[in-house]
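Could you help me review a protein record that somebody else here produced? What it holds is a sequence and that sequence's fold in token form. I need someone to confirm that the token line plausibly describes how this chain folds. Take the sequence as given and treat only the tokens as open to question. This is what I was given:
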Amino acid sequence: QTTLERFIFALGIRNVGEATAADLARTFGNVERLMAADVEALQQVPDVGPVVAASIAGFFAEPHNRQVIGDLLRAGVRFEERAALKVDTGGPVYGRTFVLTGALPTLTRDEATQRIRDCGGKVAGSVSKKTDYVVAGSDPGSKQVRAQELGVAIIDEAGLLKLLNESGGA
């Protein structure tokens, strides 16, 4: 028993790390849909460009790899499947990078991270020029200071929830 994202990561597909495996699991929902995806569909996944999409498509095009996956499933490897996620690619969270800092009033860090990712956003551990939003809770510390120095937008949990709702991630 495992999760779909861990199963995908464990396949050892070139250029697919843990974060990309999680994005693939959220986007496709099961192994069959992932194996059937073409390069264009794969490039719709956050952070999957032409090189990574070609690696994934090439991996699943190999009969041996498909055989091994079938053998694993027949041997009893199981994971929770879910419906393919419908991400609003025009939403305000899709493709944006968030940094969480401080304690949020109602969401745990894991809950906030999951909801951002479910809407096609990314969560980073540190603030950089590539950060789109810093979500600041109580006692935000140096990340908020760094965001101010770089001119990165700082929002609170209410602002995050508004963006998530606008992205269909209520």
